[in-house]
Design brief:
Blueprint lengths: L6 E5 L3 H12 L3 E5 L3 H20 L5 H9 L1 E4 L10 E4 L5 H14 L5 E4 L6 H5 L8 E6 L8 E5 L6 H13 L3 E5 L7 H17 L5 H12 L5 H8 L1 H15 L8 H8 L16
Parallel strand pairs: 1-2, 1-4, 2-3, 4-5, 5-6, 7-8
Antiparallel strand pairs: 6-7
The structure holds acetoacetyl-coenzyme A.
Protein name: 3-hydroxybutyryl-CoA dehydrogenase
Family: Belongs to the 3-hydroxyacyl-CoA dehydrogenase family.
Amino acid sequence: MAREFHTVGVVGLGTMGSGIAEVFARTGLTVIGVEADAAGVTRARAHLDRSTTRAVARGKLGAAEQAALLGRISCGTSLAALADCDLVVEAVPEDLPLKAEILGALDRICPPATVLASNTSALSVTEIAAHTSRPGKVVGTHFFNPAPVLKLVEVVRTVMTEPDVVTDVVAFLEKLGKAPVVIGDRAGFIANALLFGYLNHAVRMVESRYATREDLDAAMRLGCGYPMGPLALLDLIGLDTAHQILDTMYHQSRDRLHAPAPLLKQMITAGLLGRKSGRGFYTYA
Ligand code: CAA
């Protein structure tokens, strides 16, 4: 019989984790969110308020529904709160030792039947799964930013993932209104493997003063029909996250396409991380 996921947990409530928690709570699920510290909890609450207020303004959510949705998400700092979850998604930063540590801790806290999912964008789900005693119940669930808006979720199966876990996670995501695709475990999966070479190339064009950021973005929006230009998209993703994804893909493939443009690192060092820090290629209020 197909397993059902009623109580779900999200570890790491940054841009992606908060968005994933919102997706779950929108369909009436109880969500237990865990952050590293009290400041993280405050940031997550602010992110959830902003995002759901935007959904209300866009006519996607009623004001009463917004309050109910937010009420279904609890945010704390203890992983022990996840002990009764049917599914836990980790969305902590793209750092393999950190993700492995979190998965190991979840493995000890959650019952053996709990499915553990990683929202990694480029790291090896197989390596993450190997830090648990239940690699058959570990999958990748890679959401796209903004998670409440974009339908795609890449469901990553490793050589160890039990086939019925993949089927049940796919069915669950479809019930949430998402459009899952299933792939094997290779850095970048489908979308990032195709997208990040393009984004990196755009940074190199700015770096060499080949075109202005505004003209670059306008060209791709107005000439190719993309919803946003590559530099605005990098600001949305976060330059630090983008750098980590490129770096991981580059180390796996050695394809120069993914060798991070030096300008990216310089901007990160200067604290220009994109929307989340108020400034990246553009400045945000
Ligand atoms: N909740 C629900 N719906 C929302 C919403 C919210 N908070 N915010 C916007 N929407 C809906 C709008 O109602 C609208 O829907 P309809 O077309 O049905 O009316 C749609 O989303 C677009 O909204 P807007 O036209 O108002 O545009 P926007 O400026 O608010 O947002 C955007 C635009 C969704 C961000 C769009 O520009 C976009 O899709 N950009 C590309 C994003 C992208 O490529 N993301 C992938 C990044 S890569 C990644 O995430 C992987 C990784 O590992 C890093």
